[in-house]
Amino acid sequence: MDAFFVALLSVWNDSGFAAFTIGNGIMMLVGIILLYLAIGKGFEPLLLAPIAFGCLLANVPKTGFETDPGIMQVILYGINNEIFPPLIFLGVGAMTDFGPLLANPKMLLLGAAAQAGVFVALIGALFLGFTVQESAAIGIIGGADGPTAIYLAAKMAPQLLGAIAVAAYSYMSLVPLIQPPIMKLLTTKKERQIKMAQLRTVSHFEKVVFPVVATIFISLLLPPVCALIGMLMLGNLFTEAGCLGRLSDTAQNALMNIVTIMLATGTGLTMKAESFLTYQTILIISLGLVAFAAGTMAGVLFGKLMSWADGGKTNPLIGSAGVSAVPMAARVSQVVGQKANPSNFLLMHAMGPNVAGVIGTAVAAGTMLAMVGTAVK
Q1: Angstrom distance (rounded) from CA 130 to CA 120
Q2: Rounded distance, CA 333 to CA 317, Å?
Q3: In a designed cystine with 344, which of 65, 137, 217, 337 is the match (CB 3.0 to 4.6 A)?
């Protein structure tokens, strides 16, 4: 009988229950809430569901995920060593039509204006006592770009990777909730009703040349983001070339789905109680919300300025799509515009600043890497 109880005690001591903490319980509750938002409410379920489930897995004690060889260690390696973000950009590039941006290049200005959120978060983080490198990594949350946030955090503030990644992806998922009130507050009904002229047709030559020229120019200007920009443009080239259909299909579907699972689950795996339930995490998530709101505001306000300058030809709502949550932000511009005017179709117009926002956030990340790297040296 004694041997039986010794065996039971051994099983208990080796179980996760013996090492389970209140912090683990809180984080599992967070994971369950995120699962509810993803599955029950439909908030970007393809991203939020694996993040939430990864959070549950991360808070099971004694799994050995970080030390024992296996798939979880491979996923964490891909998160911490900048493997998954460029692969995500490959798929994003393959799925994205750069035509609206090429048809109306001034949309680059809206994408640039919306990057104000990046610098709001950067300045706010410095003010709150984060180091220069940590502040630069936190700043990218303002661009609502999960892969770029992970890419920069892995290089400059790996200890904050979990909080930064979760904040970035959470706000990407909540774009349909956060942006519309800001858009309506800053615009009049008359402005929201503006119908924009149909975009010109972009030639096949332009669509093929753009990713090549953009890669060369941006990579030479900011070598640290060559991997991100290069994969984004390579994916787009697969789609636009016209003779690389199999590669485009793989990048858009099979590869994109696999890497999304890996990246999102890996993001959840970084949400361990001991590293996530800190004062810094609360500050980062709060800064992210302020920065994302600031980026949306800056985009809409610049859209109003552009509308004034061109005599009311630009609907200011498309400025909100300047954040790089593609194509979610563009869809929100379409929805808000159509509520004001059922005959309004802003989606393709909004894709211009949306694509510009993806490029702009990557450029902002490269600029921070270059500037902070120089300062550290």
Answers
A1: 14
A2: 6
A3: 337
